[in-house]
Design a protein that fits this description.
Rossmann fold, 12 strands, binds iron/sulfur cluster, binds magnesium ion, ABC_transporter-like_CS
């Protein structure tokens, strides 16, 4: 069952007179009920630009975002306000979304108070319930965010996102700033909460190993284009796009991150301002053919749940 769907989503930013930067180029993605869609790509590839459409923080230049069949890019006023309960977001840096002057219980219960789902007198008990849900001690309710660790703060952010019982939660690099062991605990918690509450998740991350672990489906983004989509458990064995393969190979090169790895295939990342006319990856691809420079490859389905945009297929 498709809960959320992006159709032909394009976002251009005007950077000078008659000069446009294409941050998202004709993106088509589906989010299935209770499943995790992982979106992976290098920083600056347009992942966050895209995720902002899902939580109504920006609208695309072209295309639709359908939530249960309704185009949410057209919602305004009270309708938009009410819709926001359905799709919540957890950011990389909780400090940017937490007020330092608010106690943990106020941070967790703020959305519930805004939507009048609880009374002031219920704040303490409600906050305790949510802290238990994210496996934090109840006595944190009266503390301030600065006294919590990074991992604890992300648990509070998750508690707050859960409080409105959203159907969808978007995690934007939500574990990227954490130590590896803390990251693993948070990922396990997210998986557990997802199972218990049948939540649909969008998990965006630059770390392809983590994406392979958490995502049911993985979409690979390069310069604002989705170049390959496939099941998470097939990522290491079945990925076929030259860019996806370069990302995967980079995991095994200890001490080399994947942008270095790809730069070692070829020169520089092209700027989004002069994305090649044909395949966005043609300047860096070691399999490049004549047609790649002239024609943008369209997405083709090569097996169940596996789509690829590359002239080799
Ligand atoms: Fe490489 Fe051509 Fe495929 Fe692009 S379309 S990834 S340039 S082979
Ligand atoms: Mg980002």
């Amino acid at each position: 069952q498709v809960v959320l769907e992006a159709k032909h989503v394009t976002r251009k930013f005007q950077v000078a007179k008659d000069v446009y930067l294409t941050a998202n180029n004709d993106i088509n993605l589906k989010f299935y009920k209770g499943k995790t869609l992982g979106l992976v790509g290098e920083s600056g590839c347009g992942k966050s630009t895209f995720m902002k459409f899902l939580v109504s923080l920006d609208t695309p230049t072209k295309g639709e975002i359908l939530y249960r069949g309704e185009d949410i890019t057209k919602l305004k006023g009270e309708k938009l306000r009410l819709h926001r309960q359905n799709i919540q977001m957890v950011f990389q840096d909780p400090n940017s979304s937490f007020s330092p002057k608010m106690k943990i219980k106020e941070i967790i219960c703020e959305p519930l108070l805004n939507f009048k789902r609880i009374k002031r007198s219920e704040v303490d008990q409600t906050a305790k319930n949510y802290l238990r849900l994210v496996e934090l001690p109840e006595d944190l309710i009266n503390r301030y965010p600065h006294s919590l660790s990074g991992g604890q703060k992300q648990r509070v952010a998750i508690a707050r996102a859960l409080s409105l019982e959203p159907e969808v939660i978007i995690f934007d690099e939500a574990t990227s700033a954490l130590d590896v062991s803390v990251q693993k605990n948070i990922v396990d918690l997210i998986k557990k909460l997802q199972k218990e509450n049948n939540i649909t998740i969008g998990f965006i991350c630059h770390d392809i190993a983590l994406i392979a672990d958490i995502a049911d489906y993985v979409a690979v983004m390069y310069l604002g284009n989705i170049v390959e989509t496939l099941p998470g458990d097939k990522l290491s064995t079945d990925a076929k796009h030259p860019y996806t393969k370069a990302l995967i190979d980079s995991i095994f090169d200890i001490g080399m991150d994947f942008s270095q790895k790809i730069q070692s295939i070829d020169s520089e990342i092209p700027s989004p301002l002069d994305i090649p006319a044909g395949c966005p990856f043609c300047d860096r691809c070691d399999k490049v053919m004549d047609i790649c420079k002239k024609e943008r490859p369209t997405e083709k389905t090569i097996s169940q749940g596996h789509d690829i945009a590359c002239h080799l297929f």
